[in-house]
Amino acid sequence: MKKVRENGIDGFGGLVSFIGLAVACFIIWLATGLATSWLIATLLYVAMASCFLYTTLIGKQKIWDQQLPQITLSTDTRALDIGCGHGMVLFKIAHRLPAGGHITGIDIWRQQDQTNNNVVVSSLAIHNVKPKAGRQQSLREIARVLQPGGQLVIADLGFSCNAYRQELTRLGFHDIQVTGTGINGWWGGPWMPTLVLRAIR
Ligand SMILES: C[S@@+](CC[C@H](N)C(=O)[O-])C[C@H]1O[C@@H](n2cnc3c(N)ncnc32)[C@H](O)[C@@H]1O
């Protein structure tokens, strides 16, 4: 049976940009007679690319390994992973689900309308929805498909999570907590962090 690849490189364009800038700075460093400033720029972009790769391949998994034990899963759990991609979070939850529990992943390759979920998770997906009104609509949809008392956990880029908190408050979610994830969630550096938002419908 073909094994499903559960993770990929997120934001591939961002990674290519960091590597491209590192190579460009390195060439300029050579061409300018080894000027220190271009060596520093090269090393900076190499560090940013390494940080990005660490987050997408390792840090992101660590973030969810820390979050998932805090989600209550039972035999009648109906969970939904929004923007599941290759299914990294979806498979982690599936492995933890007791027999009878159920998880569905949706992505833009498939339209589905799931209601009465008691867990909804989303990993680094909702910020992709453009424009802002679309992201607000996504949160309204989450409110619609999550049953009262259901658990929501969103990991996303820092600036997005702060906006989600306001919208979810307006939608009546409670016990909303936004926490940092440290170096595991840095997309090139601390200025582009991942935050985790937890809330109850
Ligand atoms: C950065 S990837 C994260 C994938 C996965 N959640 C993970 O953490 O490994 C973002 C995912 O969001 C999906 N996505 C983007 N816009 C979406 C939308 N409007 N509805 C559903 N999924 C979307 C993309 O197709 C992509 O798989």
Looking at this protein, list some descriptive labels.
Rossmann fold; 2 domains; alpha/beta; 201 residues; 6 strands
What's a concise summary of this model?
The mean pLDDT is 91. The protein has two domains: 49 residues; 136 residues, Vaccinia Virus protein VP39 (Rossmann fold), CATH 3.40.50.150. Strands 2-1-3-4-6-5 form a six-stranded mixed β-sheet, sandwiched between helices.
Can you characterise this structure?
It is a single chain. The protein is α/β, with parallel strands linked by helices and 201 residues long. The protein has two domains: 12-60; 65-200, Vaccinia Virus protein VP39 (Rossmann fold, 3-Layer(aba) Sandwich). Helices cover 44% and strands 21% of the residues. It has five helices and six strands. It has helices at residues 12-31, 36-67, 88-96, 132-145, 158-170; strands at 78-82, 102-106, 117-123, 146-157, 174-180, 194-200. A six-stranded mixed β-sheet has the order 2-1-3-4-6-5, sandwiched between helices. α3 (88-96) links the parallel β1 (78-82) and β2. α1 (12-31) runs antiparallel to α2 (36-67). The longest helix has 32 residues, at 36-67. The model has no long low-confidence stretch (mean pLDDT 91).
Domains counted in the coordinates: how many?
Answer: 2
The molecules bound to the chains, other than polymers, are: S-adenosylmethionine
**N/C terminus separation:** 39 Å
Q: Give me the CATH superfamily of the largest domain.
A: Vaccinia Virus protein VP39
Overall mean pLDDT: 91
Low-confidence stretches: none
Summarize the main sheet.
6 strands, mixed
What is the share of helical residues?
A: 40-55%
The succession of helices and strands, N to C, reads HHEHEEHEHEE
Please tell me how large the radius of gyration is.
Answer: 19 Å
Specify the overall morphology: elongated
Strand order of the largest sheet: 2-1-3-4-6-5
The oligomeric state is: single chain
Structural class: alpha/beta
Q: Would you report the number of β strands?
A: 6
Please name the CATH architecture of the largest domain.
Answer: 3-Layer(aba) Sandwich
